[in-house]
Specification:
159 residues, alpha+beta, two-stranded antiparallel ribbon, 3 helices, globular
Length: 159
């Protein structure tokens, strides 16, 4: 039975074509293992909502205790984000041995918005682009203004 791991790391050496484990150096020609470039880039249309400034206090119906929840605008952005992630971007990148770099340019409708990409990182995890947002160890984040076309340009790559 072929597993996902076997299918991805087993194949011919690019130099001598000896069939073997691509996760290790070639035993015949001592060619180093090939470095697989793992990165995804895509754009999500819509104005990004700040996660830290858009919380609301609700009460649990059963107990009446208050709790914090995302705003309605954040919930709408979540739905839009999940629909716009391309299927080929859903790779589950990242692990403890493979940290990630996220480069995010957010195009806001005006300069009044705070630059906060916490919601984007949470949604990258929820959509399956990254395995866990804790593996993003390097972030490059920019804010720009485009009133006609607010969006987020996202690139995630292995370091």
């Amino acid at each position: 039975m072929a597993t996902k791991e076997t299918r991805e790391v087993y194949g011919p050496c690019p130099r001598c074509e000896t069939w073997g484990d691509l996760a290790r150096d070639c035993l015949r020609c001592f060619q180093p293992k090939p470095q697989l470039i793992q990165s995804v880039s895509f754009t999500v249309l819509g104005a990004l909502v700040s996660l830290k400034n858009s919380r609301r206090i609700l009460r649990q119906p059963r107990t009446g205790k208050p709790f914090s929840a995302k705003s309605e605008a954040a919930a709408r952005y979540r739905e839009d984000f999940l629909l716009q992630v391309p299927p080929e971007a859903k790779r589950g990148l990242g692990s403890q041995t493979e940290p990630l770099r996220a480069t995010i340019t957010v195009w806001y409708p005006s300069w009044r918005n705070d630059l906060d990409v916490g919601l984007v990182l949470d949604l990258l995890q929820e959509s399956g682009v990254i395995a866990n947002d804790r593996w993003v160890r390097e972030q490059h984040v920019w804010a720009e203004v485009d009133a006609a076309n607010p969006r987020a340009d996202i690139t995630v790559e292995a370091i």
